[in-house]
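Kindly go through the entry underneath: sequence plus fold tokens. Please state briefly how this chain folds according to its tokens.
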Amino acid sequence: MRRLSSDWFAVKLILQRGDSLGGRLVLFDALALKFRELKLRRNSHCPMCGTHRKIHRLIDYNEFCGIRGEEEPEGGLNVPEITARELKQRLDQGDDLFILDVREPHEYQICNLRGHLIPLGELPRRVHELDSSHEIVAHCRSGKRSAEAVDFLRKAGFRKTYNLRGGILSWSTEVDPSFPRY
């Protein structure tokens, strides 16, 4: 059985050979090994392709869904940091560390270090949930938000606070490669 690639279809369209799938949708049922072809009709009321278009360009999907891009720690914040390897070593030794996750709940669901979740935006009103006598390691996805959290906590009088350098991405790279990256 020959494998069909998208390159083959592109060449076919460029050379204008054979039939295109314009106005048609092909469905393949792998379980029954059957193909089905549906004819598509243009919807004249469609805001994207109708006669009176209201949408003229695609949205920024990441922005629309609230997906953060790659974050870089701000150079202006000078906060104490701990590396992922150092954190892993301290946890393995049984050190009493309070892991503070300052990401959003949907990020926590993707992967977490079993830390206490307080999103950065909620930290000022929930700071009373933290004990300043404990060592606190704050983390986020890449280290930017957690650096802001550590800066806030230090200004609020917390002295034993650290930022996980590189965030949960560094944990995935340096400690546990099976840890999801997003």
Summary: The mean pLDDT is 87. The chain has two domains: 6-42, 81-174. The chain is about 30% helix and 15% strand.
